[in-house]
Amino acid sequence: MYVTRIQISNYGPIERLDITFPIDEDGPKPIILVGENGSGKSVLLSHIVNGLMLAQQSAYPDTPEVELGKVYKLRSPQYITSAKEFSFARVDLTDNLWFGELQLNKRKQDYDAPPDGIVGMDAESLWHNMAATDPSHISPKTFNDRFRAKQIFQSNCILYFPPDRFEDPAWLNETNLNARAEHVDRRRIEGFTDRKVINYSPLRDNQNWVFDLAYDFSVFELQTSNVVVGFPAEGGSRRNVPLPVFQGFSAGRAKTLYDVVLRILRLVIGKGDTLRLGIGSRHSRVVSVMSGNQMLVPNVFQLSSGEVSLLNLFLSILRDYDLTGNQLTQAGDISGIIVVDEIDLHLHAHHQCEILPKLMKMFPKVQFVVTSHSPLFVLGLQEIYGENGFILYHLPEGRPISPEEFGEFRDVYQAFANTRRHFDETRAAVRNAQKPLIFVDGKTDVEYHKKAAKMLGFNSMLDKTEFRDSGGMLGNIWKGLTNDHVEHKKVIVLHDPEERVESDTRANVYRRRIRKIECHPIQKGVENLFSKKTLEKAIEYKTAFIDITDAYQKRERGEIVPVPEAWTVNENEKTNLCIWLCENGTVEDFEHFRPALEMLREILEETHEEPAE
């Protein structure tokens, strides 16, 4: 069973959405929902999950996760889009299954006619089936057929991982650290099920299931062959005794599942083909991670949050499908729907980009419907699935997009790459520098300090040093250079006046901050060193240089607080302002740079005495 289409109208941020989920001969394509916070990604998932929960209620009335007659997702007029009279949603699945929901702002009998937008849509049938005194109606087609609903669950893996899923870390308390694996005692009663759609903290269940797997294949799928060995007997004769010799394990269900578990584990932890699981003795029945005969992790509870998150997600798929009892010879046999809100939750960049897409690819018949904020995850999908192997939908409009079209994804990835490359270039420049280096925040800071040094009589210092642009990464440069134990010339990291950093010196690396001019209309950036009079001259030349917010009053905790006038350099005019000031500025205009330049000269003239022998 797969989702084939979803329609939503007037629900929160979603005014109109109609998405088709493609399924071809190779199986369903992963569906990735992207968009800003509050764009409706979780809203869309909630409608899918609500229908699956209704199906579960019908299939297993004695063990519902949501009380019979109730729904998982709250229905209320407060979720109707502002100025609209109704909200509507319909989810279509394979095998002509569907479920729909219609919510009105008031009872049906209070309307003279259906609100605009209902007639001619699939919402019209829900309107006609709604009781006059009701404000809402939900209609799951065929899910009232218990036999058919049960067939769905017995044939598919159906799981939902909410955004607040979490496993307690091993260090939280001794109980979790020493949690023992146990044999699972399944109930086999009509109307009952041991399977859960909603998965918050499944690690304990997964651990117990792995323990059962190991027991089953080592006991029931063990293969031996008899080898006849002769032993001396009375009277000088020999007695032939058949002895069983281990021949491995048969390719049974338990061994097949266990092998897939190992594939998942090896991808998640990344220690190669020698990685395996270890089961403790009956006195300490923990599931550990081994590499050959060496224990890497004493207890799976001790894995990192990201590793546990990935392991849980994909072991839950295996465990849930195993409980269906359907034929299983490989991971590719598993079918069903996996809904994950914020699939990249807790994951390191490497796991998002490299590992998660590979794990998903192991299950080609599973339909993944997930939300994500991670550009690395999307780029990883593109690498593993190819350009057309998955679908990105941008919410709230539900528009299909390509990774390239979703520009900020690639921009963020490029920013990571640029940061790494910038620091590598910076470190090389420091190592190869023939003069002491002074790193400042940006390109205009370099020009301002060089111009001030020339005008204020610091020419000799200027000749012996080099100012460099940090690209806005002074903090990274400081951390990197102070951890880089390589001899080099003096390096000064000079922060802007507003930065909250303390002066520090480590070996030949100095961190300092420019002294801030208080009661100044510009509070951020090196432009704080120019007097108001100087900036007024610049504004007179070109008003676009400076953006001005007039003084105003605000109420803060019941008190009226005056907010002074604030000036900021327009981002698009920053370079132009620098050029104008450097060409037209006087000694008086640059006078406030003097304390910073004197501080730099003192550092550069400072000598370190060699320790006495």
Structure description:
It contains 16 helices and 27 strands. It is of the alpha/beta class. The protein has a 6-stranded mixed beta sheet with strand order 9-15-16-5-17-18, with helices on both faces. The longest helix has 26 residues, at 407-432. It is flat.
What overall geometry do the principal axes of the alpha carbons give? flat
Helix content: 25-40%
Number of extended strands: 27
Poorly predicted ranges (pLDDT <50, ≥5 residues)? 170-178, 609-613
| End-to-end gap | 81 Å
What is the mean predicted local confidence, pLDDT? 83
Q: Widest sheet: strand order?
A: 9-15-16-5-17-18
Count helical runs: 16
Strand content: 15-25%
Question: How many strands, which pairing sense, and closed or not: the largest β-sheet?
Answer: 6 strands, mixed
Q: In terms of structural class, how would the helical and strand content be classed?
A: alpha/beta
What's the quick description here?
With 613 residues, the protein is of the alpha/beta class. It has 16 helices and 27 strands.
Please tag this protein with its features.
single chain; 613 residues; alpha/beta; 6-stranded mixed beta sheet; 5-stranded antiparallel beta sheet; 27 strands; 24% strand; flat; disordered C terminus
Helix/strand layout:
Blueprint: E1 3-11, E2 14-20, E3 23-24, E4 27-28, E5 31-34, H1 41-59, E6 86-93, E7 97-104, H2 123-129, E8 136-141, H3 146-155, E9 157-161, H4 174-177, H5 203-220, E10 222-232, E11 238-249, H6 253-269, E12 275-279, E13 287-291, E14 294-297, H7 305-322, E15 336-340, H8 349-361, E16 366-371, H9 375-385, E17 391-394, E18 399-401, H10 407-432, E19 437-440, H11 443-455, H12 459-464, E20 466-469, H13 474-482, E21 491-495, E22 504-506, E23 509-513, H14 532-541, E24 546-549, E25 552-556, E26 559-563, E27 566-569, H15 574-584, H16 594-605
Parallel strand pairs: 5-16, 5-17, 9-15, 15-16, 19-20, 19-21, 21-23
Antiparallel strand pairs: 1-2, 1-6, 3-4, 6-7, 7-8, 10-11, 12-13, 13-14, 17-18, 22-23, 24-27, 25-26
Helix pairs in contact: 1-3, 5-6, 6-7, 7-8, 8-9, 9-10, 11-15
